[in-house]
Amino acid sequence: MQIHAHALTDQGQIRHENQDAYFMDEVNQVYAVADGLGGLPGGAEASRRIVELLQASSERLRVQEASVDLAEFIIGINQIVASESMESHPMTGSGSTLTLCQITDNQLQIGHVGDSAAYLLRDGKLQKLTVDHTLEQELINEHGEKARQHMPPEYPHTLTRCIGQENELRVDQTSVQLQSGDRILLCTDGLNKVVAETEIAQTLGADLDPEEITRRLTETANAQSGPDNITIITLILSDCD
């Protein structure tokens, strides 16, 4: 299959700095979004450092004779970022989300930490492939959707896992067999915590190229006050010509 891809990052309407970053290696079919933690110093440094490390090592993710363990790969990135961030910011450290995917032989592999997200649109149905690592999601897991009624306002944005943490990091892994016509979206929460999934699905499924889809989703988030940085990677899979 052919993969048509486009990425865009935008500061949004309120933030004074863009702490998001993205990575796209179309040769090795590796894609990632990272959202630096705004509550800590050095959030932008952390997300950009992740991209630098991916640039230096993404070729290792190309599957040859054996599959690469994305969890181990991300844990290695975490160890470097955690060590460097404590040197730069010894009182607090710094951190970032990371949602990383690779496509090999029509197989999508995802490694995920934090509350950025990966979605799959197939036959008009949007499926979220990642789970947020937030206090909000922990409460929902424990008490169900009713927990939202009494949720402290900071819980949806308070991470329970991130790149840059010094303690042992658990990485979620997901695998999906892809089909021609599938559309994949990677995004930071400046999109999916602002724009409803129904609207995301409608735009992602439109008869448009990845660049136009990405631009329209960014404009939609900004039209709804753009309260956070917005980073999007759109992938469209099609049969080879």
TrEMBL record:
Gene Ontology MF: a single term: protein serine/threonine phosphatase activity
Signal peptide start-end: none
Domain PPM-type phosphatase: 4-237
SUPFAM superfamilies per the UniProt record, alphabetical: PP2C-like
Domain of life: Bacteria
Gene3D superfamilies referenced in this protein's UniProt entry, alphabetically: PPM-type phosphatase domain
Protein name (record): PPM-type phosphatase domain-containing protein
